[in-house]
Amino acid sequence: MTTRIINAPHPDVLQMLQRRMPPHGRAWVQANRVDSVGLMQIPVADLFYFSDLALKAAGVFTVELYGTCPQHVTSLAVMGETSSVRMAMDAIAAAQQTGF
């Protein structure tokens, strides 16, 4: 799993991300402030598991990003306030360490 956190993403980066999102994701980004973006490239099963975990761990928004091979590996974006994104990403890292 590859992970990254972008703090204070540049507006151009948010536009790049929005091009890879479904319509509801673009609408959320346009309507809400995005202080940080957590990104991870993961298998499909992990996408759903980690998205659910992130949503339960912190007040974040999660969305699948298009553009990778959806049968095997996909990308997940976790967005919101910096502390919430960090909390969600830490919860995902802890779950991965324990093997679920």
UniProtKB/TrEMBL annotation:
Chief location: other
Keyword Transmembrane: no
A GO-annotated cellular component: bacterial microcompartment
UniProt source species: Aliirhizobium smilacinae
InterPro entries assigned to the protein according to its UniProt record, in alphabetical order: BMC_dom, CcmK-like_sf
Cellular compartment(s): Bacterial microcompartment
Top-level taxonomic group: Bacteria
Keyword terms of this UniProt record: Bacterial microcompartment
The protein's name in its UniProt record: BMC domain-containing protein
Signal sequence interval, chain numbering: none
Domain Bacterial microcompartment: start-end pairs: 35-98
